[in-house]
Amino acid sequence: MKHLFKDNFIILTAVVLITVVSIGAAFMSLSFSFLKSELNRNADNTADVIAASAEAALTRTSLSDSDLRIMLISVAITSGTHIVITDENGIIVNCSDPELMCPEIGQPLTPSGGYSKSEVIEQDGIVVGYAVAETDSSGVLWKAFLIRFVLVAAIVLIIAAIASIPITKRQIAPAQAMTESIEKAEKARREFIANISHELKTPMTSISGFADAIADGTIPPEKQKKYLIAIRDEVTRLSRLVQRMLDITRTQTINPSAKKNLKFDIAELSRRTLFSLEQKINAKNLTIRALIPEGALMAVGEEDTIAQVLYNLLDNAVKFSDNDGTLALKIWKTGGSIYVSVKNSGETIPPDDVPLIFDRFHKSDHSRSSDKDGLGLGLHIVKSIIDSYGEKISASSENGVTEFVFTLTEA
């Protein structure tokens, strides 16, 4: 992030400074052009005034007169120029020195390097000298420009630093999201490997132990059938584990856009699923309370996957219901959404386990005591399917009643 921030800061600073310098250069060019014109005009006007004043003063005094010098100082201060008067040979005889010393007197006039204008001073039609007005404000202008440029440059650096922060954050956001996603996927992968390794370890150990015992004669022939049945049961359990993992993979690879184009009758599906569990329900002598709409209730989704959701929830409800208990299935719709509730009476799930029951391979103490062969994948598959539709599922368990509620979109 620091490297990206530095790059953004340098780019923004360079762009803004180049822009400021370009605009400043254009402004300076126009300013100097305007200044030059003004300085020339000012020097020309000042020279005219001094020449006229000097010609008027010659009627009573000379060009080097001190009174004329005071007048030169006054005009110089007003016009912002430096004024000198020379004789006809270009030798300085008077100037606008505020200290009245005028060290230039007696020296030949030399170019000042600034802007100057001269006017002839005549007496009786004869050239007796020259009035020269000199001005040079370019240094002042450059100084003012540099001060302002440094100030603007400092402001640009501050703005670039501030602007670089949100720009950098926006640029690294996808990378951060990708990194977080990879970290989550890696964490899930590690957890999955650890969990499935744990789930595979028990049946594999049992199978290996029983097989070795039969092979080396530890288990006598008359008892081998019992242990072969145990081996068969463990193999069946492994097969169910693999099938459940394939189910999870299938739910995660269903095309979301394709699912939106499918619809089915959730009411009819619910009736069929209940009927398929009739033997299990009768074995526990459960009371069924079904509040299912009589007519068709069309929902968006793939019927087979939602059938798996319903079957898993109802099968769990039957499995964990008390004998002579109650099983309730309720379906209703509100505001374009369909709600499906599966409720059973039985032992309450510990509060700490309720938020975890949808996790892969999770088994609460309650489920372990009632379902020794459970894989802890059924509710995870249910959650994966519901999530793949962008729908919601929730669970609650209190006072001996456990309820699962999930949503579907009405077609």
Could you explain how this protein is built, in words?
It is a single chain. The chain is an alpha+beta fold. It has 3 domains: 2-136, Beta-Lactamase; 142-235, Helix Hairpins; 257-409, Histidine kinase-like ATPase, C-terminal domain (Heat Shock Protein 90, 2-Layer Sandwich). The protein has 10 helices and 11 strands. Helix 8 (303-319) packs antiparallel against helix 10. The two termini are 47 Å apart. 23% of the residues are buried. Mean pLDDT is 81; it is low at 364-375.
Question: Which terms would index this structure?
Answer:
single chain, 411 residues, alpha+beta, Beta-Lactamase, Helix Hairpins, Heat Shock Protein 90, 3 domains, five-stranded mixed sheet, four-stranded antiparallel sheet, 57% helix
- What is the number of E strands? 11
Order of the strands making up the biggest sheet:
6-8-9-11-10
Question: What is the H-and-E element order?
Answer: HHEEEEHHHEHHEEHEEHHEE
- Which regions are unreliable across 5 or more consecutive residues at pLDDT < 50? 364-375
Instruction: Using the CA coordinates, give the radius of gyration.
Output: 50 Å
Structural class by secondary-structure content: alpha+beta
CATH architecture of the largest domain: 2-Layer Sandwich
The major β-sheet equals: 5 strands, mixed
Q: How does the overall form come out from the CA principal axes?
A: rod-shaped
CATH class of the largest domain: Alpha Beta
- Count of all domains: 3
Going by CATH, the homologous superfamily of the largest domain would be Histidine kinase-like ATPase, C-terminal domain
